[in-house]
Structure formats: structure tokens, C-alpha cells
Amino acid sequence: MEGTTSSETAVKVSSIFIYPIKSCRGISVPQAPLTPTGFQWDRQWLVVNSKGRACTQRVEPKLALVVVELPSEAFLEGWKPTKNSYMVLKAPGMEALKICLSRPHGVADGVSVWEWSGSALDEGDEASKWFSDYLGKPTRLVRFNTESEVRVVDPDYANGHNTMFADCFPFLLLSQGSMDALNNLLKEPIPVNRFRPNILVEGCEPFSEDLWTEIKIGKFSFQGVKLCSRCKVPTIDQETGIAGNEPTETLKHHRSDKVLRPNGKQQNRVYFGQNMVWKDYYIAGNEKTLKVGDPVYVLQKVSSADKAAA
Hints:
The chain is built from 5 helices and 20 strands. It is mainly β.
């Protein structure tokens, strides 16, 4: 792989976000345990329709208003849930719903998200009724079954890596510099929650993360594997669930494949953020926690976005 080394040592992690239920609201945390499939608890749950297909904000923007709460100790290294440990869900017009974090009993077959299909753990009739009432159609809440299922990421980009219910890859990194640069172009600035990153970093130039291929965060090694092509979700206001035209219209002018990758195959996509996998999980030792404030070292990068994988 073509690359150059860099010693940008002023870069650090400024925020960590976990999204326990795909397409529902995220949680900002000071630290989070790492797993090969993503942060602990990230996209471990999924709302599915009557055919078992994933429900996301693309079709159900009201999911943006579902607030998810986990015990603060859930983000400590080695913490295990008990029968009295709960995830709590809140949404407009709904009573709070408690989901026990210990293993559910039911199994839901025929669950699918994008290219993957398999079985999942069913969170039961109470959770099903809650989401069905909220969305106005039959739905169920399921949990990834790590004991029986594996969901591999695209081997063309990250062979040998897996994820749970994330769109494509275990981790998504974005820089505050990129957010600031975008907001300078927009008439109305938007918050970072529109882009749903896992790791927000600060101290680097705008869009420099496009180029990063080998990254060390704290003591852990990550690989930047693919620029993140964006769907309609960033156009949805995460406080109201209402979609607009921005920031996609602005991104089309500044962050499209035509602009960033004029020599590559044109797919009419816009890019914002870098997808990553955790490389050294098998030798990381006992403590496997990423923390806000951890330094970020760019060990290798390509020379331009045109040479980045996308």
C-alpha cells in the first residue's frame, strides 16, 4: 500500500459515542471497552419489521428520538451485567421501557441487515409492543447473538474482521476539524450527531482523516479501511426526526467522489469520515479500553483522497 508516515502528535480523542440500538440515539461516554466488532454495546441491538428486516432512520426517522440509557458501569473494563442490569429506553409519548441486559431467552430467525441474514436473540413481547406502538407498525427488538452468529465485513477492505449491526465496519472516526470546516460552509451549523461517529478527534487539519491508513490511538492499533460514504441519515435532525436537504447538498459540491476522486469510478457518493478496524486485538493484553483524551498517532497515510480506499 502506498503511504507516508506522519508524526501528528497533537491529535487526541475528544469524544466517544456508543449507539446500542442501531439508528437510535447515541450515548457520549468518557471511555469504552474495545472489542473486535466495535465498542462494547455498540449496535448490539436492532429494530426489525415484520419480515425481520432492519429498521433504520432512512425509513423510520422517528428512531432518532429514542433515547437509550445504559448503567454508567457498563463502560468499565470487565463489567458483566446481572439480572438487575437494564437498558432503559425513552421516546416522546411513551412510557420508559426497561430491557434486561442479561441474555434474552427467545430466538428470532430470519433477521437481516443489508447483506447479512441470520438469527438473533429476541427481547420479548413487551419490547415488541413498545416499538410497534411507537412506530405504528409491527416491529421487534433483537440482539446480536454472539454465540452463534458472525457478520463479516467486506473482505475487499478488511479481510478477517467482523462487526455486529453497524452498517459496514466496527468503528467510524471523524475529526472536529472536518466538522468545523463543513459548518463554515453551511448556513445553519449542524452537530456531530448527524454523522454518528464512534470516535471524534481534535487537533488535526480538516479532512486529514481521509488519508489515514495506520492509526495508533492510545496503545491500540487501528487501520483506516474505507472512506465513509454517507446516506440520507445526516440530513435528519436528530432532535426532531425531520429530514432536510443539508448537509448532503453542500457535501455534493465539496465531498463527492467527483471532487475527491476524479480519477476513480464515479458512484455519485459523498464522503465524510473514515471507517476503521482494530488491528492488534489479539495481542492487546488485559486492559482494552479507549478513553477521551487518548493521543492519536498517524503512522501511515496515503498522499491524497484519490488514493484512499472508498
